[in-house]
Amino acid sequence: PFISLKKIMSLKNITEILNLFIKSLDEIKHDLNITSDSIKGIGVAFPGLVSRNNNSLSITPNLERYFDFSLIDKFSEKLQIPIVVDNNANMKALGELIYGIGKEVHDFLLVNISYGIGAGLVIQNQLFRGKYNLSGEIGHIKVAEDGDICSCGEKGCLETFSSVRSMVRKYYTKCNKKLDESYDIGKIIDYANQGDQNAIQIFQESGFYLGKAIGNVLNIVNVESVVLTGEVKKYWDIIEKDFYKGLNETTLPLIEKNTQMRLSGLGEEITAIGAASMVLENMLI
Q1: Confidence class of residue 211 from pLDDT cuts 50, 70 and 90?
Q2: pTM attached to this predicted model
Q3: Does the pLDDT at position 210 exceed 50?
Q4: 57-108: per-residue pLDDT in tens?
Q5: Is 199 exposed, middle or buried (0-12, 13-18, 19+ CB in 10 A)?
């Protein structure tokens, strides 16, 4: 079973998270009629900076309550099964590499726009991790001089303009309404489609700054394609025009002309595919 970030965010502590994973694992074993001995490993995707050297979660900007804990030790001890933990954008990039755009190109940038924003960079069919597995934090590129304070503590980060969390917060603030803590972007999409100017303005701003940030990255990495995934697929038609305005503002014309933009054709299974591939990779190391 796929466990959504929204579901995890509704839980109160690490014990509840562990119990949820154990329950899901029991359901899988029951459905497949297998025992724990048949499970060679589990992949866990988290929206944070994950140190691959010790398989611990270094910092989770979008899971503030679960800051600084060693997931791998807690999960493995409780389940008695090897576990691989990594950033969710990295896992999605691996899933895309195996079953998506990776069948067509060797270099691409996957950008996941959901509750937060992260990226996975694939170069020559290999996931680029950086020295400490901390690459891809595109959500913390500065796109403006000022703005709301980001979860990282700074101002002007892309996440404060284009993440689902920030967009929903801004809408309810603009309308002087109580925040919908489920962070349901679907409601804001409906409002925009009905002509709500507050909603439309937030989407326009989101698209512009997203394009601006990706344009800056493209000037450095010059990949063949950019794949957008996550909640953004639900409202791409609303932000597309403003996205390209931002992209055009920062990207060199020759690079923009030769870079393909597309929405991922894969669903939530993209994360599971990437997680499974990381488990296999870890077994071979």
Answers
A1: very high
A2: 0.88
A3: yes
A4: 555 555 554 444 455 676 677 778 888 888 889 999 999 999 899 999 999 9
A5: buried
Does 1 have pLDDT greater than 50? yes
Domains recognised in the chain with CATH numbers: 5-90+269-284 (3.30.420.40), 140-263 (3.30.420.40)
Q: Burial level of 233, CB count in 10 A (0-12/13-18/19+)? A: middle
Q: Which residues have a Cβ under 8 Å from the Cβ of 154 and sit 6 or more positions away? A: 140, 142
56-59 vs 49-51, strand pairing mode: antiparallel
